[in-house]
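Dear colleague,

Thank you for sharing your sequence with our group. We've completed the structure prediction you requested, and as agreed, I am returning the results in plain text so they can be pasted directly into your records. Please verify that the sequence below matches your submission; if there's any discrepancy, let me know and we will rerun it promptly.
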Amino acid sequence: MRCAIVHYHELALKGRNREYFELQLIRNIRTALKDLGITQIENLRSRIRVLLPTDARNEIICQRLSRVCGIANFSLANSVPLDLSNPNFEALTTAVIEELKTTSFSTFRVTAKRADKRLPLTSMDVERLVGATIHERMGKAVSLKDPDITVYLEMLSRDVYFSTKKIAGPGGMPVGVSGTVACLISGGIDSPVAAYRMIKRGCRAFFVHFSGRPLVSRASEEKVRDLVQSLTAYQYESRLVVIPFGEIQREIVLNTPAPFRVVLYRRMMLRIAEDLARKEQCWGLVTGDSLGQVASQTPENLSVVGEVTQMPLLRPLIGMDKLEITDEAKRIGTYETSIEPDEDCCKLFTPPHPSTKTRIEELRHVERALDIPHLVKQGLEKAEWSEFKFPG
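Please find the predicted C-alpha cells below.
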C-alpha cells in the first residue's frame, strides 16, 4: 500500500485542543491534494496517513505537502502487514531490499519508530534485525553517523511503513486556527515574507495593496497578483484589495512639508487598511517592516506610523536583516517575482532628506492640512477586489 506518512510536532503540545488542530491539518491536507484523487486521510497515533492513488505523481505530492503549514516532515512510504502477536520481518526486509535495489549507495542505517508498545521487539531490536539482513543480502556497510541512505520504519498497530527519504514541511500551525489578519503587501521582498510568517502561525492572510495609479502603471499590481497567487498555495484561498493611491499621495505632497511625506503615506495606508480589516473581521494588521532598514523604519517613525491604528499592528520581520528575509523569500518562492522591476507607490515624490525622527505632536500638526476622512473614503471607494484559489 502506497501512502504518505505525515508527522507534526507543535500540534502534539496542544493538550485538550489537540484534536481540533489535528482535524484542521487533515482538512488542509485534503484541500491541498483535492485534485489528485486522494480519497482517504487518517489520523494514526501522532501521524497522519494519506493513501495515494497509483497514478499520483510523487513530485506533485511532495510539492503540495511541503507547503502545508503544520507539517513538520513527511515521507512517501510503502507498507507490509504486521502481526503483533507473531511479528515476522521477512516480508518487510524483502520489500525494503527490493526498493533499495533501485538506489545507488554504499552505506546505510535503519531508523525505526514503534508507535504500538505491544510489539515485543523494541525499535532498536527491529533496527538491528532489518539492518543485519540488508547487510548480509546486499553487502552494504552500516554507518550510523553519516550514511548514504537511511531506511525509515514506522511500526503501527497493523502495518509497518518503510521509506528512504524524509521531506521537511513548513512546521508551524495549520492555516485557519488563528483567525484572519490584513497584510499590507507591496511588490517588494519583505511584505510577502511577513504574510507567509503569519500564515505559518495558522492565520489566514487578507491582502491589501496600495498602487500609485493613476500616476503610474499597473506594474506593481501585476507583481502583487503573482505574489498573492504564490502565497495562496500555502492557504488555499486569498482575497486581495488594490487601492489606487496616487491621487491621495498628490494631496499629501501639495499640502504637507516634504520630509514628512513617507510617514504620512504610511499612516494613511494604515487608516484605509484598518477600515478594510474590520469589515473582513481581521484581528490585526501586518506589515513587512524591519527595524532600521529604511528611513520610515527607524524606531521613532515606526512608533508614529503605528500610533494611527487601534488594531494590533504586527511586524513579523522586525528583528530580521535583509539577508535573512531574502533567504526566506527564496525558500517560499516569492523572491524571483519580488525582484522584477515595478513602480512602487512609496517611491513617488520621495523627498531627498526624509524625516527619520518624527515626533507625534509635529505630525499631528502637519496632518491638520489634510481632510483625512475624505481621503480614507476616497481610497475605499476606488478599491478593486480579486480572489485566488489553490489548487485551481
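Summary note from our side: The mean pLDDT is 92.

Kind regards,
the structure core
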